[in-house]
Each structure stands twice: as structure tokens, then as C-alpha cells.
Amino acid sequence: MNALKTAVLLAFLSALLIVAGGALGGRGGLIFALVIAVVMNVGSYWFSDKIVLRMYRAQEVGPTHPLNRMTARLAQRAGLPMPKVYAIPDMSPNAFATGRNPQHAAVAATEGIMRLLSESELEGVMAHELAHIKNRDILTATIAATLAAAITSLAYMAMFFGGNRDRGGNPIAALALVILAPMAAALIQMAISRQREFAADRGGAEIAGTPTGLANALRRLEAAVQQVPMDANPATAHMFIVKPFARGARSLFSTHPSTEARVQALMALRPGLY
Question: Does the chain have fewer CB atoms within 10 Å around its N or its C terminus?
């Protein structure tokens, strides 16, 4: 099912990218966008995790790092290969998982989340990220981030260059793309993200052995991100455990269920399930 979802996502975002190229540059723009779509489809499968990690200046931590030791313990409990573990030099508390499959996965946590949360809360967060890996959500999420970023960037270019009348470009279509392309990318991200967060919360509780740590972490993260929001690319917002922005314009299309709903779902899990 996740393989089919990824294929549909790639096809839809690629089509949107090609339509955007045609609207902005006529036939030449369409051909250029087609080439870019092919390159990005191949590159997003093999290199999207590296792109996202580099975007946030993530640094791999060694086996003696506390986060690495915690992740190793949880991965063993979950029956997963040991992912690479990264620290992000950002004081906004957050975390995400990336990679194309469990054998080529990585988890990343900010300095802020490691300082903010207790050990049991951080364990709940890392278990949540490992659940994403176990559920094979990470390829779809990472590809969505890289392709949506490309589409959004192309749409914003229209504001500066507009349609090319000489080559068949339509300036009205270009203006529409400025509005609609980022919206379409955001809606796609929202569609693939909201339900998978509930599944990863449940899976994280099973891996950690209790829902309490994750539930408490979600409450603390929700409040802390409002105080210290992350300067994150909106195209990657769905990858983080909590929305990285403070309330405002960039939170118009929420990529996450409400924290209250997630906490209620966690605390409603039957004793013995985990």
C-alpha cells in the first residue's frame, strides 16, 4: 500500500511540476520541467534523505552519544535495523525520521528537544520516529518534501519572471500557479501525514512500552514550539513530530492532527496493548 501511495504521489507531483513549467515557459518550459521531474524522481528516491538532513545541517552522532544509545535500545526492541542518528543544531524542539527503507533510515533530533525533554519523554519521541520507519512511512514523506519544495520554488519564481508571452506562456496561468501550486503541495502533504501520525503514535507507544512518555512529550513540544519556532522549509513540515512553526500564516494547512487529539488517542490505548 505504501509503495502504491508513493507511486501515486510521485506521479501527481511530477504532473503538477510539468504543468507549472508549461504555464511559466510555454513548450520550452514544459520540456524543461519534464526533464527536472525525471531527475527529481530518481534523485528523490536515492538521495532525498541526504537532501533533507543537509537542509537542517544535521550531524551524525557516534555510538557513545546518549541519543544513539537510546535509539539502539529502542530499535532492538522494535526489531529494526539500527538507523543512523543525527543531531540538528537548532534550539527549537523537534525530531523526524527519513530514508528510503528500514535498512537505509535515519532519525534526527534537535539540540532543543534533547535539552527540553526528560529521558522517558525523549524515548517516546524516538520510538514514534522508529514507528514511522517500521510502518515504511519515511520514503513517501521524504519524497513529498523534496518534490513539494521544488514545485513551491517554481511557483514563487513566477512572481519574478511571470509567463513568457513570446513562447506561449500564459501570465494569468503563472499567477494562478503562484497561488495554487504551494496550496496543492500543502494539501498533498496534509493528506499523507495526518493519519500516519496517529499510527506512529500508537506504534511508538508499543515500542516504548507505554504511551505516557510520548503523550507528555507532545504536550511540552506543542507549547515550546510556540516560544521557539523553527526556521523550517514549509515543504518539510509534515516530517517533524510536531508542526515546527508558531501559529500563523504558515500553519494554514496543518500537516498534523491536533496535539490534543493525539494525546487523547494515546491515553485511550488499552493496558497491555503495549
Answer: N
